[in-house]
Amino acid sequence: MTTPALLPLSGRRIPPLNLGPPSFPHHRATLRLSEKFILLLILSAFITLCFGAFFFLPDSSKHKRFDLGLEDVLIPHVDASKGAKNPGVFLIHGPDEHRHREEEERLRNKIRADHEKALEEAKEKLKKSREEIRAEIQTEKNKVVQEMKAKEKKPLPPVPIPNLIGINGGDPEDNDIRKKREKIKEMMKHAWDNYRIYGWGHNELRPIARKGHSTNIFGSSQMGATIVDALDTLYIMGLHDEFRDGQKWIEDNLDFSVNSEVSVFEVNIRFIGGLLAAYYLSGEEIFKIKAVQLAEKLLPAFNTPTGIPWAMVNLKSGVGRNWGWASAGSSILAEFGTLHMEFVHLSYLTGDPVYYKKVMHIRKLLQKMDRPNGLYPNYLNPRTGRWGQYHTSVGGLGDSFYEYLLKAWLMSDKTDHEARKMYDDAIEAIEKHLIKKSRGGLTFIGEWKNGHLEKKMGHLACFAGGMFALGADGSRMDKAGHYLELGAEIARTCHESYDRTALKLGPESFKFDGAVEAVAVRQAEKYYILRPEVIETYWYLWRFTHDPRYRQWGWEAALAIEKYCRVSGGFSGVKDVYSSTPTHDDVQQSFFLAETLKYLYLLFSSDDLLPLDHWVFNTEAHPLPVLHLANTTLSGNPAVR
Ligand code: DMJ
């Protein structure tokens, strides 16, 4: 634990004292006096400031208002000024005026008393010797540590564990398929072992430089993202020694009290999702405890005027903000819209409704908003509750929002009809405005920008083939066949994007423009960073159709990864999939172990491993069990817990 700059002493904060090595003796008395003088000076300045602030500054909380007609879903401090013509002006008369004066007087007295007390305490403190102060600080520190430990140890309420079916096995009968599955497991070992040797505890690995790596989504933290992301893949592959090794690191090292600004979305899908899946698979309490500790750290991100969370939050201070590049200071649809699965599980496991309420609040707010052409724009300003730029995509910035609507329904044992309806509505609009067929007959999903369709599809959007297949059952007007077919068409298009390259690996995004079909045009779009989405779609299509082409396509991708991305220190992305002599980007992404290798392994396993009617995969491929909540409430009904 790091030492706070200002330590609470007797329930109050004092400025930091110089506790460094003692000065030369003949200087000591002089320094003591000046320290006292400075301290008193700071205190009196502070008191003057507080009085000034109290009397002269406007009460801004009364002036805030929002014009969304969403008062019922906004946080309670919002005062819509109850019919006043000018919402900025507050006139108080009669008995109210008297009450107001009394209240002001009471507050003034309280502040005066508080400050006198603080001054007394500070004077007392200054009478003490350096050693006494040091001892007091140490006592306070110990107290804080003890309190934190006690909190960590506090057992979470027991809840009925859902049916955990098919958490291991999946041995395929066919010998050839079994060998392929073994090969994927060997690739996982290679990725993990090298991370274990060269990157242990870092977020990711640089397999060529053979050292740790991190990106801005994890801030300056060293939270072992690869360990947490990989745990469930290790588990289902039967790599139990490696799993235990990861668990030990988490027990001993994973600490979220770090002064680091992280992405709320990434930390949710990789860490909370990864920890929850590891908990359900192994039954080890530590994973649940860590998931809850982390979730508590994310909650301050929701303290915005609308309740739409910031994209980033500092885990220590709780201060949030948005990405500088996002349109009009907006939060991102795919980020604030991809919390539902994990947060519902958190409420289920803790009995604390706070998580459930946060995500349901987001949903309700989105439901009330107008959508241009029925499409959800990717940008939403958390201060005003207004959409930013009208840009809609099923790829980056939008993707997993749609995925989580469908999966919220599946995870609720198909009882969350509201989520299913939102998914159906959204998909209908997407099909109408974004999905087209190329001249060569390839179905693609374009991007909608300010009333114009850009005929470009991202690698990320390829996940939608699997999503359409997964959502086919239960679709409106029994269009199951149609959606399964649509999923298969997207899978074919994405396969083409791989097949039309030199390395047989897909580019980051590809165009449909005249003669150009499923090919990247700009140099900056030609890279492959070990992404899973195309293989994810093959796997879902395989589960629903058992068409052997999906295993064949998956195997092609696995061989290409092995041939062009494998290096002696792990696996690396490549910078240009159209160049037959690949240049490596020297990053082994944590999602390669969490998703790409997991989906490949499942593709060559039998269907009884993690069956889809019992498990729902979060967007980082972490399996969470279906919750049969028919007789349960998520508000922590004591009768159930
Ligand atoms: C993963 O972290 C998740 O799948 C996320 O939803 C988007 N993409 C990356 C991998 O490409």
UniProtKB/TrEMBL annotation:
<protein>
    <recommendedName>
        <fullName>alpha-1,2-Mannosidase</fullName>
        <ecNumber>3.2.1.-</ecNumber>
    </recommendedName>
</protein>
<feature type="active site">
    <location>
        <position position="399"/>
    </location>
</feature>
<dbReference type="InterPro" id="IPR001382">
    <property type="entry name" value="Glyco_hydro_47"/>
</dbReference>
<feature type="binding site">
    <location>
        <position position="619"/>
    </location>
    <ligand>
        <name>Ca(2+)</name>
    </ligand>
</feature>
<dbReference type="GO" id="GO:0000139">
    <property type="term" value="C:Golgi membrane"/>
</dbReference>
<feature type="transmembrane region" description="Helical">
    <location>
        <begin position="37"/>
        <end position="57"/>
    </location>
</feature>
<comment type="pathway">
    <text>Protein modification; protein glycosylation.</text>
</comment>
<dbReference type="Pfam" id="PF01532">
    <property type="entry name" value="Glyco_hydro_47"/>
</dbReference>
<keyword id="KW-0378">Hydrolase</keyword>
<dbReference type="GO" id="GO:0005975">
    <property type="term" value="P:carbohydrate metabolic process"/>
</dbReference>
<keyword id="KW-0472">Membrane</keyword>
<feature type="active site">
    <location>
        <position position="533"/>
    </location>
</feature>
<feature type="active site" description="Proton donor">
    <location>
        <position position="508"/>
    </location>
</feature>
<feature type="active site" description="Proton donor">
    <location>
        <position position="266"/>
    </location>
</feature>
<keyword id="KW-0812">Transmembrane</keyword>
<dbReference type="InterPro" id="IPR050749">
    <property type="entry name" value="Glycosyl_Hydrolase_47"/>
</dbReference>
<keyword id="KW-0326">Glycosidase</keyword>
<comment type="function">
    <text>Involved in the maturation of Asn-linked oligosaccharides. Progressively trim alpha-1,2-linked mannose residues from Man(9)GlcNAc(2) to produce Man(5)GlcNAc(2).</text>
</comment>
<keyword id="KW-0735">Signal-anchor</keyword>
<keyword id="KW-1133">Transmembrane helix</keyword>
<dbReference type="GO" id="GO:0004571">
    <property type="term" value="F:mannosyl-oligosaccharide 1,2-alpha-mannosidase activity"/>
</dbReference>
<keyword id="KW-0106">Calcium</keyword>
<dbReference type="GO" id="GO:0070062">
    <property type="term" value="C:extracellular exosome"/>
</dbReference>
<dbReference type="GO" id="GO:0005509">
    <property type="term" value="F:calcium ion binding"/>
</dbReference>
<dbReference type="GO" id="GO:0005783">
    <property type="term" value="C:endoplasmic reticulum"/>
</dbReference>
<keyword id="KW-1015">Disulfide bond</keyword>
<dbReference type="InterPro" id="IPR012341">
    <property type="entry name" value="6hp_glycosidase-like_sf"/>
</dbReference>
<feature type="region of interest" description="Disordered">
    <location>
        <begin position="148"/>
        <end position="175"/>
    </location>
</feature>
<keyword id="KW-0479">Metal-binding</keyword>
<dbReference type="InterPro" id="IPR036026">
    <property type="entry name" value="Seven-hairpin_glycosidases"/>
</dbReference>
<comment type="similarity">
    <text>Belongs to the glycosyl hydrolase 47 family.</text>
</comment>
<feature type="disulfide bond">
    <location>
        <begin position="462"/>
        <end position="494"/>
    </location>
</feature>
